[in-house]
Design brief:
The complex is a heterodimer. By secondary structure, chain A is α+β, with helices and mostly antiparallel strands. Chain A has helices at residues 16-32, 52-58, 68-72, 78-91, 98-102, 151-178, 182-204, 212-232, 236-253, 264-292, 298-320, 341-359, 363-368, 399-411, 424-431, 442-462, and strands at 36-40, 46-50, 110-115, 121-136, 139-149, 323-330, 374-384, 387-394, 465-470, 476-483. Chain A folds into 3 domains: 33-149, PAS domain (Beta-Lactamase), CATH 3.30.450; 167-295, Up-down Bundle (Four Helix Bundle (Hemerythrin (Met), subunit A)), CATH 1.20.120.160; 300-483, Histidine kinase-like ATPase, C-terminal domain (Heat Shock Protein 90). Chain A has 16 helices and 10 strands. The longest helix of chain A is centred in the middle third of the chain and has 29 residues, at 264-292. Chain A starts with 15 loop residues before the first helix and ends with a strand. Chain B is of the alpha+beta class. Chain B has one domain: 3-Layer(aba) Sandwich (Chemotaxis protein chec). The longest helix of chain B is centred in the middle third of the chain and has 23 residues, at 80-102. Classes of the chains: A alpha+beta, B alpha+beta. The A-B interface holds A 74, 76-79, 82, 111, 113, 115-116, 118-122, 124, 200, 203-204, 206-207, 209, 212, 215, 259-261, 263-265, 267-268, 270-271, 274-275 and B 1-3, 6-7, 10, 26-32, 34, 45, 47, 49-50, 53, 55, 103-107, 109-110, 112, 114, 122, 128, 130, 132-133.
Chain lengths: 487, 148
């Protein structure tokens, strides 16, 4: 029933029962309303009667006689408090129109922060304040203030907004990962996780290091592994992000007098990479139940290895303006023991990638030097005498090796190693020597040297062997032997 | 959290040591905080809210604080209260700088000083936390920054 003007009891002519009724109604209202309701005087003091919900919403008891501004302090930003003070002064000015002043309400949807036992803000609510003038004989005597907890509404709208902002990025990522088989993606995630954890450990344990350059080299190595694996799966956003990270690390490599501040970009990039990995893994989990319905067989899983190498060759050669034929008819992925699968994948990927990057000439160069413009990369596998053998051959130029030999002779002359005496085995040693890179062609050389060192390390761990046969013009063959019994 | 933010917190802390003691503090290599606690004898914590939320704290050893008291206050026998006050002062300096730099749309709490290594400082879980080792003289301390 809407409130109407009070009149004395018609029979008795007395007011008592109406006052009692009104008092009761008022009590029920203040007890049971879900909103914070209170009256405020011109000196901004909260009056005696206020709703029970007010205490719950503000998280403060005994509000009577408290100054509203004091209550807001330390719970909302000071800028909003200043605006509130000004606004309340205007609300008590009778010459100003209430509706117009209400447009200035600074507490429409304000985040209100709550402190924990240490005085640190650990939770917040969004509160919406409304202000109405209470007048008596045209004088503004009080303000009636109601506070609503609009947290759910605000959080929902924020979530929708965030989702919209993320959707485009996530769609992009989703499209980027959909072409990759779930098993390979899972392995990729594990690999990235390992390398990021490795970088984290490097930074965490760096406190006593006397050689920050060594840290940088190790971080560089991990990033190259991530970049390599991302390129193999054609995960462009990951490759790009890793490239950005690598560039930051590279800047440090050239800097003298490194200090902790120099590593700030590194740790921030690491944090970003972690975030991206987490988000992509979340997307992957969401779609993985679809994939589970189509669980793959081992034969198909093995085919994926060839498939991913094919993808790498196509995308990289297209990117570099080269033409490459991929011959894998003698490669039997099924003959590779499960425990070697990842390693074989990494090795082949590394060799194929470096071959396209540094060995194979571009289409026109090959044509002008009377070679078949379509280069060939051939892989084969065999099991013999307790060894798994892998061979990768290509018919690109070998001038990278020649350049390395030349550089070594020019920049680091070694009396015991004249140029003419460099034979196959020594050239191979040069290939496996890290940090031969010079200022120019930095990434190319750094990458090659680092990859080769990585390959050497991996083979050593498994007791494997590598043989490289090459001529300067026609062909280069990498032969890798991995012991089967040691697996 | 971007590089500028992190540099800002580091500079605020490092400058404090240089300004009050005349001796430069050295920034160590920063890292991401894992699950293990980063808490030394005394920690001064400031909460940040408003447009961006988070928490920043400096945690240090009583030896360092006593040495600091010796230099700043000429107090050779600093009490627990003195070292606690000093922890608060370092945090307060960071807090003042943050307030100045981030403006009034941010809320910066009064520093809270926590004594003891017993437990980790509670930080928002969904935000990356960066740990920056800081060495002043031979003493180690950590600046921990967790900001959206």
């Amino acid at each position: 029933m809407p409130f109407s003007a009070l009149e004395p009891n018609a029979e008795t002519g007395k007011w008592e029962s109406q006052w009692r009724d009104l008092e009761r109604v008022m009590h029920y209202l203040l007890q049971h309303t879900g909103e914070g309701i209170f009256f405020l005087t011109q000196d901004l003091v909260i009056q005696e009667y206020y709703s029970k919900a007010l205490q719950e919403i503000l998280g403060i008891s005994n509000l009577r006689g408290r100054n509203l501004i004091n209550l807001l302090e330390n719970r909302i930003p000071s800028q909003i408090i200043e605006n509130t003070k000004e606004y309340l002064q205007l609300m008590f000015r009778p010459d100003l129109d209430e509706e117009v002043i209400n447009e200035l309400n600074p507490l429409v949807e304000t985040e209100f922060f709550y402190e924990d036992e240490w005085g640190i803000w650990t939770s917040s609510k969004y509160l919406s304040f409304t202000f109405r003038r209470v007048t008596q004989e045209k004088n503004i005597i009080l303000l009636l203030i109601t506070i609503k907890d609009v947290t759910e509404k605000i959080l929902l709208s924020k979530k929708i907004q965030q989702t919209e902002e993320h959707t485009q990025k996530q769609m992009e990522w989703l499209v980027n990962i959909l072409h990759v088989e779930p098993e390979m993606l899972k392995e990729f995630f594990i690999g990235v996780e390992q390398e990021l954890a490795n970088i984290e450990e490097i930074l965490k344990n760096a406190k006593d290091t006397k050689n920050p350059r060594e840290l940088i080299e190790n971080i560089y190595r991990s990033l190259f592994i991530i970049k390599g694996n991302a390129s193999m799966l054609d995960l462009r956003f990951f490759t790009d992000k890793t490239n950005q990270f690598i560039n930051k690390v590279f800047k440090l490599r050239n800097k003298s007098d490194l200090n902790g501040n120099d590593f700030v970009p590194i740790v921030v990039s690491l944090g970003d990479m972690r975030e991206i990995l987490k988000e992509v893994q979340t997307i992957f989990k969401r779609i993985s139940h679809f994939h589970n319905h189509f669980r793959i067989k081992r034969a198909y899983e093995s085919e994926l290895l060839v498939h991913s190498l094919k993808t790498l060759i196509i995308s990289l050669s297209k990117q570099l303006g080269k033409a490459v034929k991929f011959d894998y008819k003698d490669f039997d992925a099924l003959s590779i023991p499960y425990s070697y699968r990842n390693m074989v994948r990494d090795i082949l990927f590394l060799l194929v990638r470096n071959t396209i990057l540094y060995g194979i000439e571009d289409f026109d160069q090959r044509k002008s030097s009377n070679k078949d413009p379509n280069a060939i990369i051939k892989i084969s596998s065999m099991i013999n005498d307790g060894f798994l053998g892998l061979v990768m051959k290509h018919d690109g130029r070998i001038d990278r090796i020649e350049r390395m030999i030349q550089r070594l002779v020019t920049y680091e002359p070694d009396e015991n190693l004249p140029e003419s005496s460099l034979e196959g085995i020594q050239v191979t040693q040069l290939l496996f020597t890290p940090n031969l890179q010079m200022d120019n062609e930095r990434e190319l050389e750094a990458s090659y040297s680092m990859d080769m060192e990585l390959l050497k390390r991996k083979l050593k761990e498994k007791g494997g062997r590598l043989k490289i046969t090459f001529t300067s013009e026609d062909c280069c063959e990498f032969k890798i032997l991995l012991p089967l019994r040691r697996v | 959290m971007n590089e500028t933010d992190l540099h800002f917190f580091i500079d605020s802390t490092v400058n404090y040591f240089e300004e009050v003691t005349g001796e430069q503090a050295i920034t160590g290599i920063p890292y991401l905080k894992g699950k293990e606690p980063v808490v030394l004898d005394y920690s001064g914590i400031i909460g940040i809210s408003g447009k961006r939320k988070g928490c920043v704290y400096i945690t240090t050893t009583s030896e360092m604080l006593k040495s600091l008291a010796n230099i700043i206050l000429n107090d050779h026998q600093a009490t627990i209260e003195t070292v606690k006050d000093l922890t608060g002062e370092i945090a307060n300096t960071i807090s003042g700088n943050v307030r100045e730099a981030y403006g009034s749309s941010f809320m910066i709490s009064v520093p809270v000083v926590v004594e003891g290594r017993a437990k980790d400082i509670r930080l928002p879980e969904h935000v990356q936390t960066f740990v920056i080792p800081i060495t002043w003289k031979e003493y180690k301390s950590f600046l921990v920054v967790c900001l959206e």
